[in-house]
Amino acid sequence: MKRETKASQLQLRVSAAEKADIKRAAKHAGMPVSAWVLSCLLSAPRREIERLFAALDDLEQASYALAEFNDLLTRMRRDEFTRVWREPVRLPASLQMQNQVAAMIELCAHRCEAGVPTWIRDIPPLAVPVFATALASLRLHLLVHTPPPFRRRNLFVDSSLGDRI
Fold first, then answer.
1. Residue 136, helix vs strand vs coil
2. Which residue ranges make up each domain of the chain?
């Protein structure tokens, strides 16, 4: 991995207790203080999301990648959500998968009381409804119980963020 030359400096003012906590955490992580602080501030979840979205383009890995993405969003709190989704990310190629992750992000925004990223609204909803099951007898159940972000995108599911089936 190519290392970028550091040509700029940032100074932070912290209390003596905060400085001691930061040093202790960096030592525990086996990292220099600057590297540890940067790893906390610069988005490791963002890199993980990019990896997962790339995996969503592979049909064999897609269900596992969605499950990991679900776990990541379920753990996310408001400050992290806002930081991670501030900028658009490269989305999966499939419009259905784009809508799936967009609905998951919208639901996460609602749950952690954050604003929905504006770039999410640029993803057009599916023209034809997609149901999580081929069983016609379950479609009414899905129509009624699907969370609004999924329904708006023409995706009808039985489970959503934080659920396991």
1. helix
2. 45-156
